[in-house]
Design a protein that fits this description.
Strand order of the largest sheet: 9-5-6-7-11-3-2-13
Radius of gyration: 29 Å
Helix content: 25-40%
Organism: uncultured Pleomorphomonas sp
Shape: globular
Strand content: 15-25%
CATH architecture of the largest domain: Alpha-Beta Barrel
Mean pLDDT: 83
Number of strands: 34
Keywords: Cytoplasm, Kinase, Magnesium, Metal-binding, Phosphotransferase system, Sugar transport, Transferase, Transport
Protein name: phosphoenolpyruvate--protein phosphotransferase
Number of helices: 26
Family: Belongs to the PEP-utilizing enzyme family.
InterPro entries: Dup_hybrid_motif, HPr-like, HPr-like_sf, PEP-util_enz_mobile_dom, PEP-utilizing_PTS_enzyme, PEP_util_C, PEP_util_CS, Phosphohistidine_dom_sf
Distance between the termini: 72 Å
Largest sheet: 8 strands, antiparallel
Length: 840
């Protein structure tokens, strides 16, 4: 029996294969082996051999060793969705490589935020002939460390069968990335159940259908014709099984586009409202206008994702009947969620299972049922009560938690009606132009930059949580299109100019050609902007304006730096405090803050202290229920009534090295007294830690009173950062989460701009820098106006940074000031946006 010694292809931490986040690998469907969480973006050869296959996207390759063992090396989970971005293969198929030879270079920091996980796998793909004899796991490993041995256990099972029985079929492959590891494993494992031979032919090459490596080696892509031939007894039944698998996508989303024209009846059935709407008909161009949320261009076909409008029955048909109905519906949803074990949605499904089984929700629903309500009414009421408590902050992760409650409410109500819930946007074909009444943040789970072509919403506002997430992903987004959007059918071809907020339905060929030309030019312009984004941001006259990034968790800093961020202007520290039964310790917080500081490479890191409140409860932070949580215990008010929580966080921030990198930012400041209290705490903790160096302490300007009193606040602050999302909704008395008014929540309203100017004037009297970290900072058209008002730092979504830098480079400070003056004097936000567009 020959034994092959394999050496570590990565530098990182070795893990059991069962620890892989990808259930296909963890379940051993591809083969036995191990997982490694890499710390360096290099893949090296674990043994000598031939490169048997190299995936076109560069995320995986297979080495056939000199002994015949086929070793599959797969970098990360769902990295095939990156389309090759960040991968640089250094070898080619058929090349002989030596042990330790550098195979693939990959940009690890840039990839981590874009994929489900960078945990990578090394498995034996031809398990019929070779088995794993030993592995080394649960410890750090370096390149070349002995990590696994493979022993030959027999020859590969013969492909041919002594039978004249055979069956075959041909069909196009309708999955976006072809037969990469996961779908290949699905196919091969089904084929192995057949005793005879299974051959797959594509692109003039034929492969053993029972071999993952051979299938991957076909190099298939979307639309390739697969010819599948099955030989031996039971061939017909096996053909049926394989046909069903291929038609279902082999575990990947089907990427077949929608039909050009929608069925009118189906459209009417999906559209909310009492009466069916009349869809726009092909042949006549129709222009709709909404509100720009994320600028950008797109052209393609519409994919409708409307949520059902439900009139839930209030009264039940009997307590025992309704309880049984609810229990059965919950069980049905739990069963379905338990089946979602693949890819990034697995984590969402796990969270949803916890909500469905939450005893407090069940108890609340059953109490309503006991009072005579229906199961639908009771469950929906219980879930939405919790969702209302969580909603309200322009923070993607928290908003997703509120949306998770609404999603689970809908899933169980759908089950009570015999329907299934819809999947997320990440499951749609690449390039989809999504139209919905309003996108829930949780529907963006697993979404990566570039996957969705555009998001169009009938309702919603530009500072809604979904719009914030879209901005972070760089997805062109239009909101508040109004009821006419209901008339856009599935599959309708459209041209989207999200900067102008326009959608052209059924454009002419000339309009389509012009749009595609602009999109190509836009892509070139963005590439040029990204190429220049690492330079300092300066106006045309040399005036310095810093452009920072808003971050939410470890792993995002490197991506932001790659986009040109000069630091982090807002770290939402809430990510550390969620999904826990107790508050994170000082050391836990320090480890996370330090990791982000290290990603930023010495650039400034401004950490906002915990911003939760009565509307966003933590299990270990009991706060009273409030009639209007937006006007209650939020932001620093919570820290001041729970000083031990605030002091722990302050100490962790004070310990971040090197000193001077980290700064402290206080949310929802309303008075000078609050800032004095916090500064006293900071100084006390600094002295206790023995830190000699001072630390900068700033206030967020989110309350109109703080803007008006900025001159006094500036006496006790080192800097200001304006949260335009909250400042706008408080100034205009409009809840950005309320569809009825959200479209009017625009930070470029002259009244809001006047408050920003007051804050800048007050800060200027004491030489303080003013930043903007709200949604307006990610709007390139708003940037010159903000600079003209006195802002000298913008903290934006990373994807927006290159364009913001380029936009500002075209203005002098005098031009910015003149534009800002005209904006403050304008009649409304629409006029301000017109001014901004004319000056661009």
């Amino acid at each position: 029996m020959s034994v092959l010694q394999l050496f570590s292809p990565f530098a990182g931490r070795a893990l059991p294969l069962t620890a892989s986040p990808d259930p296909v690998f963890a379940g051993g469907l591809i083969g036995d082996g191990l997982a490694i969480d890499p710390e360096v973006g290099e893949l090296r050869a674990p043994c000598a051999g031939i490169v048997a296959s190299l995936q076109a996207s560069g995320h995986a390759l297979t080495i056939r060793s000199d002994t015949g063992a086929e070793i599959l090396l797969h970098i990360g989970v769902d990295t095939v969705n990156l389309g090759g971005a960040g991968f640089r293969p250094l070898v080619r198929e058929g090349q002989h490589v030596a042990t330790g030879e550098w195979l693939i270079d990959f940009d690890l920091p840039a990839m981590r935020p874009k994929v489900a996980s960078m945990v990578s796998m090394m498995v034996v793909a031809n398990g019929e002939a070779f088995g794993v004899a030993s592995v080394v796991t649960d410890r750090p490993v370096g390149f070349g460390d002995p990590i696994m041995t493979v022993a030959a256990v027999g020859d590969t099972v013969g492909i041919s069968a002594n039978s004249s029985e055979a069956a075959e079929f041909s069909l196009p492959l309708k999955i976006a990335h072809g037969l990469h590891a996961r779908p290949a494993a699905q196919f091969a494992n089904a084929a192995k159940a057949h005793a005879g031979a299974v051959h797959v032919t594509a692109n003039g090459k034929t492969a053993n259908g029972k071999s993952v490596v051979a299938l991957m080696g076909l190099g298939t892509r979307f639309g390739d014709i697969l010819n599948i031939r099955v030989e031996g007894p039971g061939a017909d039944a096996t053909v049926d099984t394989l046909l069903d698998l291929v038609l279902s996508g082999l575990g990947d989303p089907i990427a077949d586009g929608p039909a050009p024209e929608a069925d009118v009846a189906a459209l009417a059935a999906r559209t909310s409202g009492d009466a069916p709407v009349k869809p726009f008909r092909p042949g006549t161009a129709v222009a709709l206008r909404g509100r720009s949320a994320v600028a950008g261009l797109a052209a393609g076909r519409i994919v409708r994702r409307y949520h059902d409008a439900r009139n839930l029955p209030r009264d039940g048909t009997g307590i025992s009947i309704e309880r049984d109905r609810l229990a059965a519906a919950r069980a049905r949803v739990l069963t379905r969620l338990s089946e979602e074990t693949e890819g990034p949605r697995a984590a969402v499904a796990a969270a949803h299972r916890e909500i469905v089984d939450d005893p407090a929700l069940v108890e609340a629903a059953e109490a309503d049922i006991a009072a005579g309500r229906s199961a639908e009414w009771a469950w929906n009421t219980a879930c939405l009560a919790q969702a209302d408590m969580l909603a309200g902050l322009a923070d993607a992760r928290m908003a997703e938690r509120a949306a998770d409650m609404r999603d689970v409410a809908g899933q169980v109500v759908a089950a009570l009606a015999g329907r299934d819930a819809v999947s997320g946007l990440a499951d749609l074909p690449a390039g989809s132009l999504v139209l919905s009444d309003e996108i829930l943040p949780s529907e963006t789970t697993g979404l990566t930059p570039g996957h969705i072509g555009a998001i169009l919403m009938r309702d919603g506002g530009p500072t809604s949580h979904a719009a914030i997430i879209a901005a972070g992903l760089g997805i062109p987004t239009i909101v508040a299109l109004g009821p006419e959007a209901d008339r856009i059918p599935d599959g309708a071809e459209v041209v989207v100019d999200a900067g102008l907020g326009t959608v052209t339905v059924y454009p002419t060929e000339a309009e389509l050609a012009a749009a595609r030309s602009r999109i190509a030019g836009d892509a070139g312009r963005k590439a040029s902007q990204r190429a220049n984004a690492q330079a300092e941001c300066r106006l045309a006259d040399g005036t310095r304006v810093e452009v920072f990034a808003n971050l939410g968790r470890v792993g995002e800093g490197a991506l932001a730096v790659a986009e040109g961020a000069e630091g982090c202007g807002l770290l939402r520290s809430e990510f550390l405090f969620l999904d826990r039964t107790s508050a994170p310790s000082e050391d836990e917080q320090l480890a996370q803050y330090q990791a982000i500081a290290d990603e930023l490479g010495g650039r400034p890191l401004i950490i906002r202290t915990l911003d939760v409140g009565g509307d966003k409860p933590l299990s270990y932070l009991p706060l009273p229920k409030e009639e209007n949580p937006f006007l209650g215990l939020r932001g620093i008010r919570v820290g001041l009534i729970r000083p031990e929580l605030l002091r722990t966080q302050l100490r962790a921030i004070l310990r971040v090295k090197p000193y001077g990198v980290a700064r402290i930012m206080v949310p929802m400041v309303a008075s000078v007294t609050e800032m004095i209290t916090v500064r006293t705490m900071v100084e006390e903790e600094r002295l206790r830690l023995g830190r000699v160096e001072p630390i900068q302490l700033g206030a967020m300007i989110e309350i109109p009173a703080a803007a008006v009193a900025a001159r006094q606040l500036a006496e006790v602050c080192d800097f200001f950062s304006i949260g335009t999302n909250d400042l706008t909704q408080y100034a205009l008395a409009m809840d950005r989460g309320n569809p009825a008014v959200a479209a009017g929540v625009d930070a470029l309203h002259p009244g809001v701009l006047g408050l920003i100017r007051l804050a800048c004037e007050g800060a200027g009297a004491h030489g303080r820098v003013v930043a903007v970290c709200g949604g307006a900072a990610s709007d390139p058209s708003a940037a010159p106006i903000l600079v003209g008002l006195g802002v000298r730092e913008l903290s934006a979504a990373p994807a927006a940074i290159p364009e913001i830098k380029a936009a500002l480079a075209a203005f002098t400070v005098n031009q910015c000031q003149a534009l800002a003056e005209r904006a403050v004097q304008a009649q409304g936000a629409a006029e301000v946006r017109a001014l901004a567009g004319a000056s661009a």
